[in-house]
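User: I need a structural model of SDR family oxidoreductase from Bradyrhizobium agreste for a docking pre-check later this week. Nothing fancy, just the predicted structure tokens so I can convert them on my end. Input:
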Amino acid sequence: MTLFDMKGKVAVITGSTRGIGLAIAERMAEHGAKVVISSRKADVCEQVANSINERFGKGTAVAIAANISSKENLQNLVDESNRAFGKIDVLVCNAASNPYYGPLAGISDDQFRKILDNNIVANNWLISMVVPQMIERNDGSIIIVSSIGGLKGSTILGAYAISKAADMQLARNLACEYGKHNIRVNCIAPGLIKTDFAKALWDNPENLKASTSRSPLQRIGIPDEIAGAAVFLGSKAGDFMTGQTMVIDGGATIS
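Assistant: Understood. Predicted structure tokens for SDR family oxidoreductase:
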């Protein structure tokens, strides 16, 4: 058994049909975990689960669609995950929303509420649904995918950045609440990663060059470069880490 072995663990990953969530699901499966693939579209979830089962063995993955804006959908995600695998050891809150780019003075109330509801409130809902069984077993790992946006000010990502800063505080608070039950709660804060979600920030070559030229590694990241941190946090390797935010940004926040 290695520090990063996830055999016997069940991981639920939201927003896991593409980008960072997909990379995390694939790497956790590679390290032996059973994984629950979840996003809004059932057919896409099925395609991803089938692909993972083909690569890592039948029964490694199941598909359970859920819209994070629906409390009922999230409860169904938990119930069906338990029905499929009997438990949830690792929860990765990766799904998020960002319907607005621009100054805060221009954001509509509905857009602001959607960002806060989906990126903070929904995470707390889902965590609260999963935690009771972790308390019963006296073990669990919760991972929230935040962003370096939560560490910096922004003229175009203000509401999103506020929500991601709140996720870091959510992790700290919950780490304090659940630490006595051996439940760890941490964040991963990626920098600029080449995903569809962040396409508006890297699709323009001039914007990409301006962003990456200030970073020590001078390049954009890829989803798989975030996945290893999730495996660390979900495995024995991360057993003594809680309430922290792992920044993985090519050095962008130090330069």
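Before docking, keep this in mind: The first strand starts at residue 10 and ends at 14.
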